[in-house]
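Quick one: structure for this chain?
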Amino acid sequence: MVAALLLTDAEPETRGFLERHLPRDGFELVPDHGQFDLVLAGDVERLDRWVKRAPVIVLGREQADAVDRIHAFRSGCDDYVARPFEYQELVERIRAVLRRVRPRLDDVVEAPPVRIDTRTRDVRVDGRRVQLAQKEYELLLCLAREPERVFTKGELLRDVWNYRVAGRTRTLDSHASRLRRKLRESGAETPLVENVWGVGYRLVGVLSTE
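Got it. Here's what it folds into:
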């Protein structure tokens, strides 16, 4: 799986070098409003903006000392690489941090603006918590794991309700309607649960291309 990286280093030479080389090693560089798996940060003072969203590797300035490194770790960074750094070592450090956090990332399902923490069953839309009934939660989780994929009604009845045969039932439609209403009441700007007429349902939001 390709890892998405957010590069916040403002130093032009370092940034340009990493923008040229990281994609060649299988990493995707994404903007800060997208989804990312790890942050390469050059500004220790702004770590609190990133540590709650993804693991962070700090690219320390050349004049950094032990005090700077300690401050960075106490602020929540996952690793610290002093400059000038060996590029291949940085790549291996990125991969090592990603290996450590993968289980944690798998516990969180994100399909912006929806974020689901499966450990606590916490559901949020743009940061606002949404209270869902059990089957509403399971339906949303199923849709969010593959945002924009159209799930047939038969698939959803099988995966969420364990129906072996998709007979005539309004169970799915009624739950989808309540789920759509609750997400809308939470502040979602667009209807997130879309009924694809004659087929089934999908989750759409800021990632939609329509």
